[in-house]
Amino acid sequence: MIARIASRFPSRIAALAVAAASCAAVAQPFPTKGPIRLVVGFAPGGGTDAIARALNTRLSEILNQSVVVENRAGAGGAIATEHVAKAPPDGYTVSFTLNNHAINQALYPKLPFDTERDLRGVTLIGALPQVLAAHPSAPASTLAEFLQQAKGPDARARTYASGGVGSPGHFAMAYLESLSRLDFVHIPYKGAGPAMTDVLGNQVPYILSTLTGVLPHVRAGKLKALAVTSKVRAPVLPAVPTIAESGFAGYDMDTWIGTFVPRATPDAVVKVLHEATLEALKSPAVRECIEAQAGRVATGSPADLDALVAADIKTLSKIVKDRNIRPE
Questions:
Q1: Could you give the domains of the chain?
Q2: 74-85 b/e with 16+ CB inside 10 Å = b?
Q3: For residue 225, what are the β-bridge partners?
Q4: What is the structure's pLDDT at 28?
C-alpha cells in the first residue's frame, strides 16, 4: 500500500523524506560533533583562567566530549563576549566570564553587541570577594575611619588604587561613593598588579582589589584589611567586616563568575550545559580551585543568572551616571 501511495505522489514523498532527515539531524543529542570551547576573556595564567581549566577538565568527563579553554583577552572581556555573541547558537561556544559581562554593558555606550539581547545565561559558578585594604601607615584601620577621614581636606586620606577604570574594584568604590555621598580620589592602573605594587610601596595608601590578590599581603602584615565587598564575611578573613554590615545594608559587589551562550541557543542545549556544570561543581578539584582564589561556589538556574545580569546592569548604569564615569 505504501508503494502504491509513493507511486502516485512521488514529489510529496520525497519532500517528506527530506523533512524527516532534517528533523533527525536536529534531534541529534548534544554534544556530538566536536569540542566545546570555553572562551575566557582574560590571559592564561590568572585566577579566572585557572578556574576555567579546572572546570573544563571535569566537563569533558561528564559530557564525554572534549571541552577546551580558548583565551581571547582584551577590552575587559568584551572581545571574548563579542566572539561568543556572534557564534552559532549550538552550545559549542560558551563564554566563561566575570561580572565584567555586566560592567561593560553599563560602561561602554557603543559595544558591538548587547549583553542581554545577544546572550543568555547558563550557570552561575562562583563569587570572588573584593576587599578594601590599606598600607600599614595609612591613618584608617576600619571602613568607618576611612569614611570619616574622606570628609576632611587631606586628599591623600581618601585616595585609592584600582586595576583600572571600569574594573570591579573601581565600581565597588564608586558604589560606596554613591551610598556615602562622598568623593574619593581614584588612581587607576593598567591591571591589579601595578596597583598593588604602588600601594605596597606606599605611593597610594588604599586599594580595592580581589581578596585573592590582597590576602597574602594581609597575612604578611604588609597590608591591613578594612572591609570586604560580599554579603557575608570571607572565611579566610573572619574578623574583617563586610561593607554591608558597616552601615550600608544591601551592599554587595562580589566579582561573580558565570557561563553564557548566544541568545538563540535552544533550551535543551542550555539544560545539558547547565546540568553538566552543576555536576562539575561537585568535584573537589573544581571547588578547591575556586576556594584557592578566596572564592566560594555559588550556583543558580539560567534564569537566575539572566536576572542577576539585568539587575547588575541597572545598578552599574546608575553608578556610571551618578559618578560620571567615562571609559578610558
A1: 36-128+254-323 (3.40.190.150), 130-246 (3.40.190.10)
A2: ebbbbebbbbbb
A3: 133
A4: 64
pTM, two decimal places: 0.85
What is the per-residue DSSP string for 130-189? EEEEE-TTSS-SSHHHHHHHHTSS-GGGGEEEESSTTSHHHHHHHHHHHHHT--PEEEE-
Average pLDDT, the chain: 90
Question: How many whole angstroms separate alpha carbon 215 and alpha carbon 144?
Answer: 21
Burial call 237-246: b when 16+ CB within 10 Å, e when fewer: beebbbbbeb
The CB density around residue 71, as the number of other CB atoms within 10 Å, is 19
Burial class (CB in 10 A: 0-12, 13-18, 19+), 22: exposed
Asked whether the beta carbons of 243 and 143 are under 8 A apart, the reply is: yes
Cα torsion 300, 113, 69, 255 to 10°: value is: -50
pLDDT tens sequence across 96-119 = 999 999 999 999 989 999 999 999
Q: What share of the chain is helix, strand, coil (3-state, %, to 5)?
A: 45, 20, 35
Query: Are the C-beta atoms of residues 20 and 14 closer than 8 Å to each other?
Result: no
Asked if 244 and 200 touch (Cβ cutoff 8 Å), the reply is: no
At residue 247, what are phi and psi to the nearest 5 degrees?
115, 5
| φ and ψ of 126, to 5 deg | -170, 175
Residue type, 51: I
- Mapped to the 3 state alphabet, what secondary structure does 204-244 carry? CCEEEEEHHHHHHHHHCCCCEEEEECCCCCCCCCCCCCECH
CA triple 76-49-254, angle to 5 deg: 60
Pairing relation of β-strands 296-297 and 185-188?
unpaired
